[in-house]
Amino acid sequence: MPVLEYIKQFTSVLKESVDAATFVKVSLGNYKGEEEALKQILIRKVVIKREDKLAFTYRYKTRDVVKNYTIDEAIDLISDYLNKGFKIATLFTTEKDLILEELNNGKVVFRESKASSSAAPSASHDKEKARLIKPDSKSYLTELKITDAEGQVFKNAQDKFRQINHYIEILSALIKELPEGTIKKVADMGSGKGYLTFALYDYLHSVLKLETEVVGVEYRQDMVDLCNQVAVKSDFSQLNFVQGTIEDYRADDVNLLIALHACDTATDDAIFKGIKANSELIVVAPCCHKQIRREIEHNKVKNDVSFLTKYGIFLERQAEMVTDGIRALILEYFGYKTKVFEFISDAHTPKNVLVVGIKGKVLSAARRAEILEKIKASKAYFGIDYHHLERLLEL
């Protein structure tokens, strides 16, 4: 029988195994073709955007290249590769293994053997990540247009859904540093449409099994009304949204205070509220940093970084670092263990710095004096008359 007939039989069995969901993988080897450094092709089934495809991993001497094809495209490619370069192919299914080999003398070996695998592997395109917020049976995700009624994440909401889970992962790690039962009330300052507020409530109640009250504070009344309607529909009885500003909200009994993307000194207002409430955890993602930039520009102090700050973009970055650096020092002064790290909010928002304060021990008078001196020296170096948070706390 000609080689082409054996190849046709091989690809026919392959197609049948894909249709019957018994397909495991295909390996093409012993390459004698013209493509330089190509050694092997490994093929597995994947599901991309709800469509079955075959993923080809092209193994070269120093690198791997992955390409995805429809089932029909893949069958045609495999047939072509076996006709023009690969001398051995092995099909693995849950029922049997099938080997097609063309020997050096031109003879063809075509044989079956006992199945090497009893179960088909996952067809997920990427390895499934253990997410704290899952899309299934979450009515708030449907109401907020993240998922459809069946719990499938919309294509245009994939970035937002990843952002939500990334945010909850960060907060989960921070909450674990607190004594058990600490978080009784949460205030999310500037909650917007509430994506992250709902997700945090879901995590606290569904995963941690806490009876935590969560309040979203938002200036726009239409957003407040929308979020309260979604909270009622989701049966989130301890979640409430109120209209107001960060500056005006009374946060006396808040254990966890959050303010993401609060512009300029609004971040200082949020940190001030958290410190005065003696909150166990303060989490802010600042933006704008206009107040300190204006101070630096107005006073024009000459220092070792003046050769950088004469450029607007570098001055902006310097103002960001100085503003948030002093915020971290002030948190330390009030007994908070501070962390500053990068928070990528979503595909449409730049990377942000997350400033975190975790309530710790009261510092000694000597340590507090040392921090105040460091703040004073930093202000003098950059020509800063005052920092808004410093003024709020009357330091």
Task: Detail the topology: elements first, then pairings.
Elements: H1 3-19, E1 23-31, E2 38-48, E3 51-60, E4 64-70, H2 71-84, E5 86-93, E6 96-102, E7 108-114, H3 139-143, H4 158-175, E8 185-189, H5 195-207, E9 213-218, H6 221-233, E10 239-243, E11 256-263, H7 266-276, E12 281-287, H8 290-299, H9 306-309, H10 312-333, E13 336-346, E14 349-359, H11 365-382, H12 388-392
Parallel strand pairs: 8-9, 8-11, 9-10, 11-12
Antiparallel strand pairs: 1-2, 1-5, 2-3, 3-4, 5-6, 6-7, 12-14, 13-14
Oligomer state equals: single chain
Secondary structure tally: strands: 14
- CATH level-3 fold name of the largest domain: Rossmann fold
**CA radius of gyration:** 30 Å
Low-confidence stretches: none
Spatial separation of the terminal alpha carbons: 91 Å
CATH architecture of the largest domain: 3-Layer(aba) Sandwich
Walk me through this protein's architecture.
By secondary structure, the chain is of the alpha/beta class. The chain has 2 domains: 112 residues; 254 residues, 3-Layer(aba) Sandwich (Rossmann fold). The chain has 12 helices and 14 strands. Strands 4-3-2-1-5-6-7 form a 7-stranded antiparallel β-sheet, with helices on one face. A 7-stranded mixed β-sheet has the order 10-9-8-11-12-14-13, with helices on both faces. Strand 2 and strand 3 form a beta hairpin.
List keywords for this structure.
395 residues; alpha/beta
Would you kindly provide a brief summary of this structure?
The protein is α/β, with parallel strands linked by helices. It has 2 domains: 3-114; 139-392, Vaccinia Virus protein VP39 (Rossmann fold, 3-Layer(aba) Sandwich). 38% of the residues lie in helices and 28% in strands.
